[in-house]
Amino acid sequence: MDLNVNEFRLQGKLTWKPITKVELTALGAMKYSTNSIEHYILETSNQAEAYRAMGTSTIREKNSYLYTDPDNIYALPVSVLPEGGILERTDNRMTGYDFRASAAYNDVFRDTHIMNLYAGMEVNYMNRHNTHNSDWGVLFDNGEIASFNYLAFKKMQENNTDYYSLSNTRERSTAFFANATYSYKGRYTVNGTFRYEGTNRMGRARSARWLPTWNISAAWNVHEEPFFERLSLPMQQLSLKASYSLTADRGPASVTNSSNIFLPNNPWRPFTSVKETNISLYQPGNPDLTYEKKHELNLLTR
User: Fold this and answer.
1) Is there a domain that residue 190 lies in?
2) Residue 138: inside a domain, yes or no?
3) 3-state secondary structure at position 226
4) What would the mean pLDDT of 73-93 be, rounded to a whole number?
5) In the structure, what pLDDT confidence band is assigned to residue 46 with cuts at 50, 70 and 90?
6) Which of 59, 68, 237, 291 is deepest in the core (most CB within 10 A)?
7) Is the separation of the CB atoms in 197 and 171 below 8 Å?
8) pLDDT in the model for residue 118
């Protein structure tokens, strides 16, 4: 089994200060990765030999890897892999782009009031591509040429087995965020955070696809108070903090049925002459599919 991985990442950042207390930042990143897995089932391997094990009539009748043609009532079990081996290959490809723009403002007034402001937006883009195929009858010891048997494909059709697969996944998300912090002499601090984000994994309704999350907190550094030293406490630092927030999670990556999911498939038929394809409803759509929300209250002393 051979595993090959290639990965490329590129990231750039631009920072500009139009004035001393304001900083503008733009960050862009690109990532591209591929990996492939090749499984070589050689001619003399146990798996390949199992498809042609019929040395005696007893073995021929008991070997489930042999094939009996249902179109011929007089057919005997035969091998669908009379020579060669099998090569199974899986390829994965991922392409992603990320962009973030932000602005920060930091200032101190009269050595008493401390203010920090931060705001920005980000966009995320990711595509995934996956393929898998099985090559039957590969003569690894004879120039790696193909010597396939049509009965292998006939058996696959009758067993409703795919010898290749293909899938594509697309993820998109956008977010806007802001944070503000104010502190008075380092004693009293108030902080607020707000984030508004949306993703194509959620339902089409605006109330489902887009969600605002936030956090507000306040802290009192008691040890900064003039009276703290006069208390003669065994501790040198004491802070009280309270926060209340609404956070959210997108849920498992497998849950994506914001709209109806239809999948094509090949229904089983006893004969290849009546083979057909169809499209069936895999998962019903949930237009109200949204984030898993959590309200949280924290009270801390340290």
Assistant:
1) no
2) yes
3) helix
4) 93
5) very high
6) 291
7) no
8) 96
Nearest Cα residue to 167 out of 94, 97, 98: 94
CB 289, CB 250: distance < 8 Å: no
Given a contact cutoff of 8 angstroms between Cβ atoms, the answer to whether 102 and 13 are in contact is no
Please say if the pLDDT value at position 254 is more than 70.
Answer: no
| Assigned domain for 39 exists | yes
In angstroms and rounded to an integer, the radius of gyration of the C-alpha atoms of the chain is 32
121 versus 278: the higher-pLDDT residue is 121
Residue 273 inside a domain? The answer is no
Distance CA 81, CA 52 (A): 6
Rounded CA gap, 124 and 213, in Å? Answer: 18
CA–CA dist 126, 32 (Å, integer): 10
Q: What is the pTM of this model?
A: 0.72
DSSP 137-184: EEETTTTTEE---HHHHHHHHHTT--SEEEEEEEEEEEEEEEEEEEEE
User: Per-residue pLDDT for 274 more than 90?
Assistant: no
Report residue 108: phi and psi, to 5°.
-130, 125
pLDDT over 70 (residue 263): yes
- 257 φ, ψ to 5°? -85, 55
Q: Is residue 186's pLDDT more than 70? A: yes
Which residues form the domain of 84?
A: 1-91+126-167
Helix then strand then coil, in percent of the chain rounded to 5, is 10, 55, 30
- The more confidently predicted of residues 118 and 142 is 118
Number of domains in the chain: 1
